[in-house]
Amino acid sequence: MIQILELFGGIGAPRKALKRKEIPHKLIDYVEWKENRVRAYNAMNPFKHNQQDIRGWNLRPDILVHGSPCQDNSSANQNNDQGRSELMLETIRIVKEMGEWRPKFIIWENVRGALFKSKRPIFEEYLREMEDLGYTNSYQILNAMDFGIPQTRERIFCISILGHEEFDFNKLMHRPLRPMSEFRQKENEINDIEKYVVKIPSMLNRLKDLASVEEIESNKNKFRYIETIVNVCNTITERPDRCPSAGVFKMEDGRYRYPTEREWWRLMDFDDEDFDLMLQEFPTKEGKRNATLYALAGNSIVVSVLEAIFDAILSGNYAKEDRESQQLKLIC
Length: 332
Prior knowledge:
The longest helix is centred in the middle third of the chain and has 13 residues, at about 120-130. By secondary structure, this protein is of the alpha/beta class. Helix 1 packs across helix 10 (about 305-315) and helix 2 (about 35-45) packs across helix 8. The chain contains eleven helices and eight strands. It has two domains: about 1-175 and about 300-325, Vaccinia Virus protein VP39 (Rossmann fold, 3-Layer(aba) Sandwich); about 180-300, DNA Methylase, Chain A, domain 2 (Alpha-Beta Complex). It has a six-stranded mixed β-sheet with strand order 2-1-3-4-6-5, with helices on both faces. About 30% of the residues lie in helices and about 15% in strands.
């Protein structure tokens, strides 16, 4: 049985991936400081956890998954670092304090902005510290589209393996892109659809479908237009009603609407049963969109990407073959 520890645990995408794959596992602990994420996690899992701060914490897992706060690494927040980007180094402290014990695998996920010039020194420090602890690091930017989800969500994944094996991202099993129709709700399924209709002038003025070629060209250095979702949406964030955005759907009457909270969760590869539990935990106010449900999903990890990583790790077919071994095979 795999023992797993979730740091910066969010709503529990790693646990969701293990449960969906029916992989026997024991959760050693879940660490998350934000109250609504803890409530969401508890609603989807049988064991109840309290809020905890990652600082000052330790235990002994086989697999450690951490997705430290991404806001300070965002391309939209390069000049407003509040120290959250450095919280990934708390994981180093926790592993050091485990004593002789070391998790076999440590998985870290974040926005690709962690590789930007201004943020990269923190990431490189993390890599050096992991090497000093005896790990071999491999990292790559993965897109949710390659794992069946019609969302252009690019995230960096760093997989550190205890010892000298290097993780081979080419061994991850990709999935065919699922059609947007599996994720989009029919209009007659949406309660109070008017609250999702785009009505704010500042948002209407940025709808790409309603702009001329000349307007798009003249504004290309000022802002990005909001795309109409057909086959694929842009990256899911905390909110659907800001620009840049994941996009909008065109309605049958010619108007445009934001994706619903349920569509948001589907596009992060959570099941409708999970979303229904969230609705019970965080009821939607009449006539309002549910900001909490948008934010909880937008800050999570796409479940199918984690499924592919766990499949590779637990099958044992994850390491790069060294060149000498490959050459020996060719000679033989």
